[in-house]
Structures are given as structure tokens and as C-alpha cells.
Specification:
Blueprint (H helix, E strand, L loop, with lengths): L7 E5 L6 H17 L8 E5 L5 H10 L5 E4 L16 H6 L4 E4 L2 H6 L4 H13 L3 E6 L3 H7 L3 H11 L9 E4 L13 H19 L1 H6 L2 E4 L7 H5 L6 E4 L6 H8 L2
Parallel strand pairs: 1-2, 1-8, 2-3, 3-4, 4-5, 5-6, 6-7, 7-8
The structure holds phosphoenolpyruvate.
Length: about 260
């Protein structure tokens, strides 16, 4: 964590909680954060509900002026048209979203998303005023064959080729082998890759951009291991899956 970048704790709900459950959960989370004396000036919190929950979450966050940002778990690379089932970044902006996750490993694997598609999705998000949360990370096989940093660094480079140079982004380093496995990377392993990612950002976008860009770690983050990640100089927060669905656990992560 650096003194200049605002830490970001992002909760990816994946395909969990319908819109009624989402409303109740968001309210409980807001109370829990308030009771824990959460200060948005110190840490930013963003939740990523399923698309069908976004309107309900927007209504409650706006009506109650909650200090919670929202984002979508995916976005179309297209603005509008004959793309059945896809969701335009413009629609997400209208729903009060600040962010859109692109390139989560579950979409790369299950929906055959390449780095180029992921980069175009990030570009579409940025064009509509969203900040893309660009997910990258190596599989267990990649780790064995190439080490930890090579694949995520090349995924970052390929995606950046599609994204305008001035577009703000958040990078989420998520080793695929750590996601949902209960076995997180060590803070030292994650730091090594995040440092290499920042060096690549410096090379391709310049030092100011690299210094300003937040790089998150994701993969089995819990309340008991978050502090170790946040102590590392190139880790600026976490993308949290399973633990973001437990109000107390997520609050304790935010309070690292
Ligand atoms: C994720 O889905 O982005 C994730 C990191 O999941 P988990 O925290 O459950 O490993």
C-alpha cells in the first residue's frame, strides 16, 4: 500500500444474491461499516452485484447516501445493437456504476474471452466513464511452466494495446489457482507480480500513470490474511469473492 494511492476493497458477488437479497445485504453492509467506523477517505469500498441487482442497489445507495461504490461484473465491448444478452457500458453508467470488471478468469475460461476482447471491453467501459477493473492472472500450469509474473504481465500488455492511453484503470492480479481455493498466494508472491505489473505500466504508460494506478490482489482473501497483502508496497487493495458475501468478514477486510 502506498501513501498516495487510495486503497480499494472490491467485493465480487459473482452469481449470488437476487435483487431482494441484494437490497437487504447492502443495507446490512452499510450498517456494519458504519458500526466499524469505516472512513471512505481512508479506504474505498466497491461492490459488484449481478446485473439484475444493480438498479435495486443503486436505489438504496442513493436514497440512503451510502459510501459504497458499485460496479458490474462484466460489460460488452459494443455500445449498442444486435448483441443479445450483452450489457452496454452506457447502461451501467446510468445505473450509477463507477466500475466494470473485465477479464475475470471465470469469464476468460467459461466464455472464451481473449486478452484482446478483454482490452476492448475495458476500452468500452472507459469510453462510457467507468473505470475498468482489469483482471489478469496465471493458472497453476502457467505458474509451473513460466513462473508467476510472465503470463499476467503479457495479459496486461495485450489488453493495454486496446485501451486508450489516457483511460484510468484498476488492475487486479488474481492467480487462477488461488481463486475460490482457500489457498491464497503469500503476500511476498503477490508483491513480486504486482511490482512486475507496475514496471510494465511504467514502460507502456509512463511513471505518473503507473504511480497513480491501483493494483489489487485477489484470490482467497479473508479478514485473517488481508493485512499481509496491504503491507506490501505495490498492493493497493483486494478483489474479494467468497468473503464479500459475509457482512462481518467483508467489514473486517475493509478495516484491515
Ligand atoms: C474472485 O472471484 O475474484 C475471487 C478472488 O474469489 P475468492 O475471493 O473467492 O477467491
Amino acid at each position: 500500500m502506498s501513501a498516495t494511492r487510495l486503497p480499494l476493497i472490491a467485493g465480487n458477488w459473482k452469481m449470488n444474491l437476487n435483487h431482494l437479497e441484494a437490497t437487504a445485504f447492502t443495507q446490512k453492509l452499510a450498517w456494519s461499516l458504519r458500526d466499524a467506523k469505516y472512513d471512505p477517505a481512508e479506504v474505498e469500498v466497491a461492490i459488484f452485484p449481478p446485473f439484475t441487482d444493480l438498479r435495486s442497489v443503486q436505489v438504496i445507495t442513493e436514497a440512503e447516501k451510502l459510501s459504497l461504490k458499485t460496479g458490474a461484473q462484466d460489460v460488452s465491448e459494443h455500445e449498442s445493437g444486435a448483441y443479445t444478452g450483452d450489457i452496454s457500458a452506457k447502461f451501467l453508467t446510468k445505473l450509477g456504476c463507477s466500475y466494470a470488471i473485465v477479464g475475470h478468469s471465470e469469464r476468460r475460461e467459461g466464455h472464451h474471452e481473449t486478452d484482446e476482447i478483454v482490452g476492448r471491453k475495458a476500452a468500452a467501459a472507459a469510453a462510457a466513464g467507468l473505470v475498468p477493473v482489469l483482471c489478469i492472472g496465471e493458472t497453476a500450469e502457467d505458474l509451473k511452466q513460466h513462473g508467476a509474473a510472465a503470463v499476467p504481465v503479457s495479459q496486461l500488455e495485450n489488453a493495454l494495446a486496446e485501451i486508450p492511453a489516457e483511460a484510468e484503470l484498476v488492475v487486479a492480479y488474481e492467480p487462477v489457482w488461488a481463486i475460490g481455493s482457500g489457498s491464497a498466494a503469500t503476500p511476498e508472491q503477490a508483491q513480486e507480480v504486482c511490482k512486475a505489473l507496475r514496471e510494465k505500466l511504467t514502460e507502456l504508460r509512463g511513471a505518473d500513470f503507473a504511480e497513480a494506478t491501483r493494483i489489487l490482489y485477489g484470490g482467497s482473501v479473508k479478514a485473517e490474511n488481508i493485512a499481509g497483502f496491504m503491507a506490501e508496497p505495490d498492493i493497493d487493495g483486494a478483489l474479494v469473492g467468497g468473503a464479500s458475501l459475509k457482512v462481518d468478514e467483508f467489514t473486517n477486510i475493509v478495516k484491515f
